[in-house]
Structures are given as C-alpha cells and as structure tokens.
C-alpha cells in the first residue's frame, strides 16, 4: 500500500538536491522500531482503528516532509514525485508484553517492511518504508526503514514528532529544515567516493552478537 501526501508537491519542489554532507555517510535504510504496549482495556479492533488514524496522519505529515514521499533518483537527488511511503499492515498472533518480557532478536526484523542491510538504497527505490504491527492484545509496534540519504537521527526525530503531533491533532505543526542542500551544495561525487574509499579500507569484517 502507498500512503501519498495529502496535498501534491509543488512543481518547483519536485527534485530535492542532496547536500554534500548527505554523501559523506553510507546510505542504507536506517531501521527503527517503536513499541507501544496496550496499557488500557483497548481491544485489537481499537488498535486497528488507530492504524487508520496513523495512515491519515502520515499522509498529512508527508505533505510537510515531501522528500520522504518520493523515490531515490540518483546519488545526488531525490525525485519528489509523491509516489508515497510504502506502508504495510501486519497482524501478530501473540501478546506484545510477552514478546517484550523475553524478546526473540531473531524475530525483530519481521516488524520491518524488509530485512535491513548495509546495502545502499538504490536508484528507483522508495525513500520511506513503514510497517505497522498490530498484536492480538491491542499493542502496536511501528517499524520504519527510511533512506539515510535524506534522514539522520535528528531529522528522524523531527519527522516522528511531526507525525505524532498530526496523529494526536496537536496545534503545533512540525516543519522540517530542508536548507542543507543550499548551504552545502553537491555538484559531483568526488568527495563522497574518496571518503568511502578511505572508510572501507579501515573497516574489518567479523562476527557480532546482539543482546
């Protein structure tokens, strides 16, 4: 399912140029998972109603954060064509409290729209991918995979605050700061390629464990 912006992006904003700072970091999809246990007597049906509200508020939020509703055009820009965020709704046949009490780390990635990796978000891929997981107890887990080409941690926090405000019908409307391409323009990839060559020579592969 695609969640498009509630209002179309103006023609003069259809291409979002990436700043040179966006190119100095690896650009995979950055996953984040948000857990909302059911602390009331709400049922799974009320959780499903909340998922409808999440979709409507996301559509309104994407109007402000219009690059997130686009596709990756190339290593220098985002095509803000209003294709929308990839949105998946999943039902989970267990209780969220039980999962959080003894989490199975092998299952966590199933809360995301796709398996995260260090592969770069490629040309033609959607910038934003969201999966809303509804548990049979009424708990909700929201998994996001957004291209690092456009969002860092601070910008992701701003987007989540804007979405939350819109879902709660708060008076404050959060607007993103999209001035970085003007302040730090990028006309070529030479600096990115040089930085990537240096950083890759310093990285080592090995075994790791998540706890």
Automatic annotation (TrEMBL):
- Which of UniProt's keywords are assigned here? Acyltransferase, Transferase
Q: Does the keyword Nucleotide-binding apply?
A: no
Q: Which domain of life is it from?
A: Eukaryota
Q: Which one of the record's GO molecular function terms can you name?
A: acyltransferase activity
Q: Which PANTHER family match?
A: F21J9.9 (PTHR31623), VINORINE SYNTHASE-LIKE (PTHR31623:SF110)
- The source organism is Artemisia annua (Sweet wormwood)
InterPro entries linked: CAT-like_dom_sf (IPR023213)
Write the protein's name. Chloramphenicol acetyltransferase-like domain-containing protein
Family named by the database record: Belongs to the plant acyltransferase family.
């Amino acid at each position: 399912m695609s969640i498009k912006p509630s209002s179309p992006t103006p023609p003069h904003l259809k291409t979002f140029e990436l700043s040179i700072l966006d190119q100095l970091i690896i650009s995979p999809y950055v996953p984040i998972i948000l857990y909302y246990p059911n602390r009331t007597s709400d049922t799974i049906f009320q959780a499903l109603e909340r998922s409808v509200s999440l979709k409507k508020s996301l559509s309104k939020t994407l109007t402000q954060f219009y690059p997130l509703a686009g596709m990756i055009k190339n290593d220098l820009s985002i095509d803000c064509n209003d294709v929308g965020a990839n949105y998946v709704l999943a039902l989970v046949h267990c209780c969220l409290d039980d999962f959080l009490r003894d989490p199975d780390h092998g299952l966590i990635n199933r809360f995301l729209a796709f398996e995260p990796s260090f592969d770069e978000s490629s040309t033609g891929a959607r910038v934003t991918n969201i999966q809303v997981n509804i548990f049979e107890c009424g708990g909700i887990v929201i998994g996001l995979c957004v291209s690092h080409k456009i969002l860092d941690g601070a910008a992701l926090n701003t987007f989540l605050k804007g979405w939350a405000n819109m879902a709660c019908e708060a008076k404050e409307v959060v607007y993103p700061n999209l001035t970085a391409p003007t302040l730090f323009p990028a006309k070529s990839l030479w600096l990115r390629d040089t930085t990537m060559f240096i950083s890759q020579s310093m990285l080592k592969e090995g075994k790791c464990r998540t706890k």
